[in-house]
From TrEMBL:
Broad enzyme group: hydrolase
Keyword Hydrolase annotated: yes
GO function term, MF aspect, one: alpha-L-rhamnosidase activity
Domain Bacterial alpha-L-rhamnosidase N-terminal, residue spans: 156-331
Protein name, as recorded: alpha-L-rhamnosidase
Domain Alpha-L-rhamnosidase concanavalin-like: 340-445
Keyword presence, Hydrolase: yes
Top-level taxon in the UniProt lineage: Eukaryota
Residue stretches making up the Alpha-L-rhamnosidase C-terminal domain: 814-899
Annotated coiled-coil segments of the chain: none
Sequence ranges assigned to domain Alpha-L-rhamnosidase six-hairpin glycosidase in this UniProt record: 451-812
Amino acid sequence: MALASRPFAVTNVRFEHYLPEYALGLHESQPRISWRFQNAPEGFQQHGYELELVDIPSLSQEARNPATFKVDSGASVLVPWPHHDRLRSRQRVGVRVRVWDAVGFSSDWSEQSALEVGLLSRQDWKCQRITTSWPVDPSRPGPEHLFRKQFSTRSEVAHARLYITAQGLYEANINGSRIGDQLLTPGWTDYSKRLQYQTYDVTHLISSGPSKNCVGVRLAEGWFCGRIGFEGGRRNIWGSQMTLLAQLEIQYADGAHEIISTDDTWQTTPGPTRLAEIYDGEKYDANLEIPAWSTGDSANSGVWRNATALESLPETTKLVAGTGEPVRAVEVLKPVDLIHTPSGKSILDFGQNFTGYTRIKRVRGAKGQTLTLWHAEVLEHGELGRRPLRQAAACDQYTFCGAAEGESWEPRFTFHGFRYVQVDGWPAPKGERAMMDSFEAVVIHSAMEPVGAFSCSDPRLEKLHSNVKWSMRSNFVSIPTDCPQRDERLGWTGDLALFAPAATLLYNCYGLVSNWLVDVRGDQDDLDGVPPVVSPNVVKEDKVWGQVTPFAIWHDCTILGPWALYQATGDSTILASSYESMTTWLDRIPRNKARDNILWDPSFFQLGDWLDPTASPHDAARGQTDSVLVADAFLIHSLETMASVCTILEADSTQAETYGAAAERYRFETQRAKSAFLNEYISASGRVVSDSQAAYALTITFDLFETREQKMRAGERIAEIVRRNDFKVGTGFAGTPFVCEALALAEQTPVAYAMLLNEQCPSWLYPVTMGATTVWERWDSMLPDGTINPGSMTSFNHYAFGAVITFFYERIVGIRRLEPGWKRASFTPAPGGGLTHSQASVLTPYGQLSCSWSLDRKPSRQVNGGQHCNLHLAVVVPANVVVELVLPSSSSSSLDSERKQSVKELSCGNWSFSVPWVEPSDAEWPVKPIHMKLFG
Ligand code: BGC
């Protein structure tokens, strides 16, 4: 490969895990720094780096006090902040980086990346917490509240920041313009402990000089006091009053500084949004709009009253910046069809199930006329299928004021999980085109950095991958939730525990998940060390979930969640900050005192292999696999993971001795638990007592056998079970992420492919054949006859079963981390399943890593009954990463164990190879099902 002709540069200089565009208002006072490389020469490995730090004063963009730091190190990810001084509140710093290799070949300086610190201490907050001044009935949902403050600037404005948060949801404006594009701010946290605030650069929105300015804020109930929870939820979980805290800090060009902060001189009035609820939707009456309400020109009409100032937030509620990406509108969808239902309704089809809302555009309606939009994920017998929404109305209503030019509107404080929208009360002009043109759908989610891409020769698998990605997008809305449509949308810990490894392949979700884990740990403290089933814990009062009951998997999230983040990034700080929560959980697990004193006490109820396809639609926990076996398998997995966590912390930390001793203890406990498990559940030859797909999936993947022979026998047995089941899936939440991997580990990869490519229900492809555009909660959320599954828990947008996509990356393509954070990876191409090509790329912390293989078939040539092909391999390795390419040899057969492999180490560059490959013969692929016949 020739040297790159464009200059070799360092790019994407970033702080902690923030995307460069979100480096405003950070709370880290010594943020770690990372960068990627552009046009690095072939084989480049960094040997040293130099950081240049400059202060960016707020009065000018001229940098001051450059300080440079040279470090001999190959590290380019999360390197320590070089300055001994900690950054202060509001400090703005620019950072540039350059690097060199062993022979001194160096890059240019990067562009400058800037970061700005937020308000680090409570003393920085000068504002008062304000609320409305009229009595509000907290027992029922009320309208949005508007707040505003008109002000004049003294002279030319050099720089202005708005720091703002609310107990509720807010949308802020200055002089009639919306500030920023963040949605559902301040985001969802356990508001009693942590309230996030946002920092906005509003310099450009403020008018300098004599004209009047105005900051205006809309406030709605949101998660804070709106209805949320399980089985309909409850109102006022964190408080019954919406409140606002804001301070606008203006730096004038002449050096003066002014703070305009919320207090009882702010004015307030109810707004035109008459109802704003997460589950039920929004009702907006355009007749109640107050023209130009958030501008300096608006008259002080009688509707405005002074706000009431409340006592400060208790010190126990921290004001934090949070580390999750903001929720934003990320895509706009146009309707693909207008459906007229048998009952005469009009339904728009957006062609994709997703999370967001409907926008209406320039619709002309008579004054007082109301347009109603009902949202749902599916149609049932041609009508809108609203039953799965349970007690969520998911309905938005707009009342026209009769504007001649038409009216445009979109909700601000709600979101729906939907594909279809039933439009009731459509005003003139009638006509299909006019209706289709008048609506669009806005897709929203936490705007994480996409990292994974997959393609292959089977479009059905590509569609499945796309569906998983859509389900992740739909459910990563401020926190990782279970579903976006019904009366839940909660941070169920088990769902994330199982999906986290897949999630990290699709998006960089470190910021969001680590932010959520802070609340998981806080909730765990409240529950005396037993983690919550959902966090923020809004089910404390629920009759089932409110009890402090330990559950396997859901509570193992305290270990498996941080572990997945560590694997994706190599950042061990998440392990250190989760350590206490992990050990506390392991200590709280009730053990079987009567027998081994190490496995789970079997008297505790477990969710087990939740939603196993053989469980009744009305009893999802009652699957075919012993739920205690499932719990015990996860216990061992958690103990073993914990031993690794301690070993990593031992190497990284000043408390090496403590962690070393803990590692020893967890290794010992893992061994004890494995022996007890063997004794209880595994026969000498390798059969597992539950004899189900999930039992084998877990025991093989978690390595719970004593001997290789037992494991291989278990592999044969699960293959047999799958073949007898016509390759249909027999696992629920717990077994599904592991079943294909277990087959591959036990050298039954063709059976894994047969299962993956199967279309009969239950299977991953059955929903695809039914037109699914997201992953369903149940294998048969929609029954083959087009009827919605009768179970009350029937979502069409749950990511859990999508965890199988780790197999797509790691097995179908063969790309895998060898070291956490992708410093070292492997590419083990092993074509199978009749596919002729596959490709995956991952945007690693170092840059884009991409691997693909394709088969060039030569039909005339048959070798040993198989087909002789050329296997073309292509690899793109980013700088500072090494990829081990495991080349299959020409004598390879379909059996993994018989493949002779050779390993090549590839460093930065674009690589391609061709090797001979023999495709399996007809006798080996496709794998045949086993049918037991009674006669003949
Ligand atoms: C949620 C699940 C969750 C489960 C636990 C459901 O209602 O949607 O995803 O993990 O409850 O029982």
